[in-house]
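hey so i finally got around to running the thing on that chain from the lab meeting. sorry it took forever, my laptop kept dying and i had to restart like 3 times. anyway pasting the input first so we r on the same page abt which one it is
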Amino acid sequence: MPDTGGGAFGAARLARMMESLQTRLPAQGKRAGRPSEASWVPHPKVPMSEATGRRLRLLAEQSGAGGRKVSPMQIADQILEDALTGMQER
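ok and heres what got predicted. didnt touch it at all, straight out
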């Protein structure tokens, strides 16, 4: 999980991350099933702790907007993409 910080500014950074995920997913109704980016590998199997899985599920539930389903692995991918982009910028 990226360190977005606490308080209102941390919440704003987390909200921007979730907005970024929403813009990467196709609009509802264009493809059957759960929306995903076409370049993503379907159903990757990534080992993680139960605590991490719970946090990802919670973030996925919170980030679904307008009835769109967002999976925990879509959240995990967005976090990973953002972390790697941040590493490249350094």
